[in-house]
């Protein structure tokens, strides 16, 4: 597997990052024919596009971040770790393709579109108060219905996703800026520093 190329949008808000993994044919030579065919399945489909729920996206993002970290820091055994992570990514993708029908032009249902709009709003306004009742009024949908379909479609509860979005941004700011923890807490929408510390610890396993 050759190095990753990534590009980030010029924005401070959580958005997206494009990561390209290039696999040489030789990468698969150490596996049996059956294993290689399974791992190469994502490259054989005419439309290898997967729609992942947010839990699955977080899982893939964690794997990709681990790859980037290994390539950047190069600790002992990093090449072996990268290879194992790459296999995990390919296997996840292959299993997902086998277990779900892939449609070239899959259309979102109206409620999926609505939940996508809510997610984008959260991503853009994570630093502001985001109570569920305010969001449900903003998008003209009942609070109870939004709570239910948000969980069904994204795999996360509404409050859980808001917290994850805020903590992910806090992690980025801790890594990329010299801001104080208090500044980061306020910027990410936490009006209580103690709550920020507890949520950061809960989601990352570390103290900020």
Description:
- The model is unreliable at 3-14 (pLDDT under 50).
- Helix content is 58%, strand content 5%.
- Strands 1-2 form a two-stranded antiparallel sheet.
- Helix 2 (54-73) packs antiparallel against helix 3 (78-99) and helix 7 (158-176) packs across helix 9.
- The radius of gyration is 19 Å and the shape is flat.
- It is mainly α and 208 residues long.
Break the fold down into its secondary structure elements and pairings.
Layout: E1 2-7, E2 18-22, H1 33-39, H2 54-73, H3 78-99, H4 110-124, H5 132-138, H6 143-154, H7 158-176, H8 181-187, H9 193-204
Antiparallel strand pairs: 1-2
Could you describe the largest sheet, including whether it forms a barrel? 2 strands, antiparallel
**SS element count, helices:** 9
Compute the separation of the termini in Å.
Answer: 33 Å
In terms of structural class, how would the helical and strand content be classed? mainly alpha
Give me the Rg, rounded: 19 Å
Quote the average pLDDT: 83
Query: How much helix is in the residues?
Result: 55-70%
Keywords:
208 residues; mainly alpha; two-stranded antiparallel sheet; 9 helices; 2 strands; 58% helix; disordered N terminus
Please sum up the structure shown:
58% of the residues lie in helices and 5% in strands. The protein has nine helices and two strands, in the order E-E-H-H-H-H-H-H-H-H-H. It has a two-stranded antiparallel ribbon with strand order 1-2.
């Amino acid at each position: 597997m050759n190095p990753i190329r990534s590009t980030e949008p010029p924005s401070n808000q959580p958005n997206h990052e494009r990561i390209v993994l290039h696999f040489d044919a030789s990468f698969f030579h150490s596996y049996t024919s059956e294993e290689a065919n399974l791992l190469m399945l994502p490259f054989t489909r005419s439309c290898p596009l997967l729609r992942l729920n947010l839990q699955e996206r977080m899982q893939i993002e964690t794997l990709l971040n681990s790859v980037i970290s290994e390539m950047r820091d190069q600790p002992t055994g990093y090449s072996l770790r990268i290879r194992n992570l790459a296999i995990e990514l390919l296997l996840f993708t292959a299993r997902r393709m086998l277990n779900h029908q892939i449609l070239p032009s899959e259309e979102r249902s109206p409620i999926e579109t609505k939940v996508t709009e809510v997610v984008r709003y959260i991503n853009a306004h994570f630093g502001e108060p985001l109570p569920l009742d305010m969001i449900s009024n903003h998008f003209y949908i009942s609070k109870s219905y939004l709570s239910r379909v948000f969980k069904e479609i994204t795999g996360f509860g509404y409050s859980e996703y808001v917290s994850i979005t805020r903590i992910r941004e806090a992690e980025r700011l801790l890594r990329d800026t010299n801001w104080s923890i208090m500044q980061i807490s306020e910027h990410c929408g936490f009006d209580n520093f103690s709550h920020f510390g507890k949520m950061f610890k809960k989601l990352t396993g570390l103290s900020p």
